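// run 5 | inverse folding | seed 20
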C-alpha cells in the first residue's frame, strides 16, 4: 500500500502532486498574523460535518459518484507495488487491510481478529484473522495471503520495500493465524506497518501484471472497467463480508490535474466530488450555494531546507537570518488560508495529537524565528555575508511553494540582498536538490507525507543515510544527532523514542538545517446532494465511501 511512514524520493513527488498547481503571486508589505481582510482564516474543523442518515435506504443504495483526482495515476492498483496516492485511492476501495486507520489516524482491526500478541520484546507478533472472509472471486482469505502481503514488497524489490524491510519472516501457523518476526524492534510497526492491504497470493502470483490492472481484493468495491490514462470504474460488491454495506453502487475515478477545470466541473454539477480544493479557488468554492468543502488535517509536511554542504547557508546564523526575514504565519494566512496550518517542527500537528506523543509544541514555537528584518540584517552582517549575496532558491513550479520562495526572495531584497528564485518541474528538482552544490541551490522547498509516527519525518528527512535520497541539506549534526534518530527507530519504547525526538527537534530548531513551513490539509469539494462524506487525514483513503463512521450516498 502507499507508504505513509517512510517516503522515498518519489514520495516527495507524490506529496507535491496533491498541491495546487495554480501560480500564487507573493505579496510585499508588513508581515502580521491576519489575512488580507484583517481576519483570522477559518479553521479546517469548520469543514467537517456530523453523520447524515438517508430517509430511504433503498433509494440511497442506488447512488453513483464521479470523483475527479488532482493528478494522473501511475495506474498501479496492486497494493504490493502501488506507490502513488491516487492509484491507492482506487485500491483502498478494492482491498481491505489487516488493520486500517480510522478518522483519527489510529489503527483498528479489519481483517485481523483483534490486536496482535507481542513477544520477544517487540520482535515477534502473532496475528489472528477472522474466518469466513472472502475475496471477490470466492476464495477465502487465509493467513498465507496475509504473510504474502507482508513479504512480497521486499522479495520483489518494490518501492514499498522499506516499509516491510525489518520483517525477517512471516509464516502461517494455520489458516487463521500467522507469526511475524522482525530483525530488530521497530517503533512504527504497530502504528504503521500493520496496515498492510491483503492480496490473494495464488491469484496475484499467477499473473502479477494482469493483477496490477485488474485486481481482486476483499473490499467493498470491485473493478468493472478501466481505461489507462482516462478512468477507472468500480461497482459495489454485493457479497461484501463486512458491515455496513455501502450505499454507493458505482464510482468512477477520472484524472483532472487542471485546478480551474476541476473546480469548474464540480461547480457546474458535471462532477459529484473533486479531490483538493486549490487555495486560489477556495473562496469561490466556499461561497457556492450548492457545493460543500470537506476537510481534514493531514500528516503532510512542507519545509524550507538549507544547503549545509556549500555556500553561505553552511552558517547557522545565515539560516536563522533567513527565518527572521519573513513571516511564515502571514504567508500561510494569505496564500493558503483554511487549506493549511503553519508548523513549528518536522512533526505535523495531527501526528503529534493523534499519536499521543505530547511533544512540547509551545516551547518549540518559541524557538522559531519571528519576523524581524533588523535582526535578519544584523545576523547576515555579523556573518560576513557580502551585499551582493543572491542565494538560489529552488521550488516546485507553479504552486504555493514557489510563491513562498518568491516571498523569501522579496524579503531578502528589502533588507539589501536578493535571491535567484527558480521554479522547476519535479523531474528537474529531484535531480537538483540532492547535489549539495551551492551553484545549484542554497535553499529548496519541498514536501513530505508521513503518518502517525515521527520516524517518517526524522529518519527520511534528517538521518545521514538518506542524503541524496530524500534530502539535500547534508546536515552533519551535533554530537549524537544521527545516532538518536536511528536509536528511536529501532526502539519499541514510545517514552524513550519521545525523548530522543525532542532532542533531535531542538537541535533542528537551534541549528536550522530545515525551517518547518506548513501542513496542507486534505480537502474535497462535493455537490450538496452528496451526503455523509468525510475527508480522511490520509489522502489515499479519500474518498472513504464506507466505514464505521460514514456511508456516503447521493440524495437525488
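// decoded
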Amino acid at each position: 500500500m502507499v507508504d505513509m511512514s517512510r517516503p522515498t524520493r518519489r514520495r516527495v513527488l507524490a506529496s507535491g502532486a496533491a498541491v495546487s498547481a495554480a501560480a500564487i503571486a507573493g505579496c510585499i508589505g508588513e508581515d502580521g498574523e491576519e489575512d488580507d481582510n484583517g481576519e483570522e482564516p477559518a479553521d479546517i474543523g469548520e469543514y467537517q460535518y456530523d453523520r447524515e442518515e438517508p430517509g430511504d435506504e433503498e433509494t440511497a443504495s442506488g447512488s453513483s459518484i464521479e470523483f475527479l483526482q488532482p493528478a494522473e495515476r501511475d495506474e498501479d492498483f496492486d497494493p504490493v507495488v502501488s506507490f502513488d496516492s491516487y492509484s491507492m485511492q482506487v485500491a483502498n476501495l478494492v482491498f481491505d487491510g489487516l488493520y486500517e486507520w480510522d478518522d483519527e489516524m489510529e489503527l483498528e482491526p479489519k481483517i485481523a481478529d483483534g490486536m496482535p500478541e507481542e513477544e520477544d520484546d517487540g520482535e515477534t507478533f502473532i496475528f489472528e484473522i477472522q474466518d469466513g472472509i472472502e475475496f471477490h472471486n470466492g476464495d477465502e482469505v487465509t493467513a498465507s495471503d496475509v504473510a504474502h502481503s507482508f513479504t512480497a514488497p521486499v522479495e520483489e524489490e518494490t518501492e514499498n520495500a522499506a516499509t516491510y524491510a525489518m520483517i525477517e519472516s512471516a509464516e502461517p501457523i494455520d489458516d487463521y493465524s500467522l507469526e511475524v518476526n522482525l530483525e530488530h524492534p521497530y517503533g512504527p510497526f504497530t502504528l504503521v506497518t500493520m496496515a498492510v492491504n491483503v492480496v490473494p497470493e495464488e491469484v496475484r502470483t499467477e499473473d502479477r501484471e494482469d493483477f496490477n490492472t485488474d485486481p481482486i481484493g476483499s473490499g467493498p468495491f470491485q473493478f468493472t472497467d478501466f481505461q489507462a490514462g482516462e478512468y477507472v470504474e468500480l461497482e459495489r460488491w454485493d457479497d461484501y463480508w463486512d458491515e455496513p454495506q455501502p450505499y454507493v453502487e458505482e464510482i468512477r475515478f477520472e484524472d483532472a490535474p487542471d485546478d480551474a477545470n476541476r473546480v469548474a466541473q464540480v461547480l457546474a454539477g458535471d462532477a459529484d466530488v473533486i479531490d483538493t480544493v486549490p487555495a486560489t479557488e477556495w473562496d469561490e468554492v466556499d461561497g457556492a450555494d450548492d457545493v460543500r468543502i470537506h476537510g481534514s488535517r493531514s500528516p503532510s509536511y512542507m519545509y524550507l531546507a538549507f544547503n549545509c554542504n556549500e555556500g553561505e547557508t553552511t552558517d547557522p546564523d545565515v539560516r536563522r537570518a533567513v527565518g527572521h526575514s519573513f513571516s511564515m504565519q502571514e504567508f500561510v494566512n494569505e496564500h493558503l488560508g483554511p487549506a493549511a496550518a503553519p508548523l513549528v517542527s518536522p512533526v505535523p500537528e495531527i501526528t503529534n495529537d493523534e499519536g499521543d506523543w505530547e511533544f512540547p509544541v509551545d516551547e518549540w514555537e518559541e524557538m522559531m524565528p519571528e519576523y524581524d528584518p533588523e535582526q535578519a540584517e544584523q545576523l547576515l552582517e555579523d556573518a560576513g555575508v557580502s551585499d551582493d549575496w543572491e542565494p538560489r532558491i529552488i521550488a516546485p513550479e507553479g504552486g504555493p511553494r514557489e510563491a513562498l520562495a518568491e516571498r523569501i526572495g522579496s524579503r531578502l531584497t528589502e533588507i539589501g540582498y536578493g535571491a535567484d528564485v527558480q521554479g522547476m518541474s519535479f523531474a528537474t528538482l529531484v535531480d537538483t536538490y540532492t547535489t549539495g552544490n551551492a551553484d545549484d541551490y542554497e535553499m529548496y522547498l519541498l514536501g513530505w507525507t508521513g503518518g502517525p509516527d515521527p520516524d517518517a519525518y526524522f529518519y527520511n528527512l534528517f538521518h545521514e543515510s538518506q542524503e541524496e535520497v530524500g534530502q539535500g541539506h547534508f546536515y552533519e549534526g551535533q554530537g549524537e544527532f544521527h545516532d538518536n534518530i536511528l536509536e528511536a527507530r529501532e526502539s519499541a519504547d514510545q517514552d524513550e523514542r519521545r525523548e530522543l525526538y525532542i532532542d533531535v527537534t531542538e537541535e533542528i530548531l537551534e541549528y536550522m538545517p530545515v525551517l518547518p513551513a506548513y501542513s496542507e490539509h486534505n480537502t474535497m469539494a462535493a455537490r450538496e446532494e452528496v451526503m455523509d462524506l468525510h475527508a480522511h487525514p490520509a489522502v489515499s483513503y479519500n474518498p472513504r465511501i464506507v466505514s464505521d463512521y460514514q456511508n456516503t450516498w447521493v440524495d437525488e
